[in-house]
Amino acid sequence: MNAPVYLDHNATTPIDEAVLDAMLPFLRAQHGNASSRHELGTIARRAVDRAREQVAAAVGVQPSQVVFTSGGTEANNLFVKGAAAMLKPQQVVVSAIDHPCVAVPAKDLVRAGWTLRRLAVGADGVADLDDLEAALSVPTGIVSTMLANNETGVLQPVAAIAARARVARAWMHSDAVQALGKVPVDFAALGVHGLTVSAHKLGGPKGAGALVLDKRIELKPLLHGGGHESGMRSGTENVPAIVGFGAACELAVQRLGAFAAHCSALRDELDERLALAGATIFGRTAARIPNTTYFAIDGIDGETLVIELDRLGFCVASGAACSSKSTEPSATLLAMGIEPELARGSVRVSLGPTNDRRQVLDFAAAVATTANRLRQLTAMAV
Fold this sequence. Notes:
single chain; about 375 residues; Aspartate Aminotransferase, domain 1; Aspartate Aminotransferase, domain 2
């Protein structure tokens, strides 16, 4: 039996062999606690410090600015809740297309007296800067906008948003989980106060992420205990995962150009083939990360199409992995003004370095054939 063709890299990526090699010693003999003073503990501490340097280098900051977490969700919650605890209640602005791990904690701030404002996006999936100007006319404490949308892949004007947020004296955060390793990510150039990154989206292990912070701001920790991560995130460090995160970041930076060239060529051809099959490509007119195509075919249910494609050996998603069990239309597509019926047909393809042209052509052909068959079945049922 042939192995399935994996086209769901925005959900998670396979661990790179070089990353696994870096992790294995810390899953075996080098099992020390990084806070212990003996030899094994010292080896673990040095490995964590090295990984912190690698993650910092990937986004152009000092190692002291990197706070390791269990992943992107914790890092996003740490910024939103940790910042709110240091500020007086006022307005919090998040984009209408942000991930639930930003949107939900922001909504939860309403209980503490904050006002939630959702930043509109255009039909192309890009945040509306005019709407931002209107939002910032009200005293604002926190602004958060993702750098690359996890469904459409559309890149957001984070630097422009951050510049306006700073003028309004708001703390600016960006979730860069889907961007790191696919496009250049530079903390200073973005102008943010906080940046979230994660290991398993770029060939690293699950269970490791980081919040990168401006040195001039202070957050209230979510977790209290032994004072790990300079007091920002207590808990024994997951040394193997952190080591893997560092190795993955270093490799991602080295391979960025090759990754972008390879995936964008495949993505562009996939877009063309799907359009010929009658698909609508969401966010196609905007700048996107190079590996992502989000589409729907009118009259075809997305979940049904994903199941049929899975039977044919193609692993894709009917939206974001975190909401794949929901039958509701994509909130991102609704925010873009897409009709609910078309939005229910959404399917996300996210490519990786091991995918090739033959796989893309076979997938596009399978979509066209399956869509035609599903239409015929629907017509017969009527």
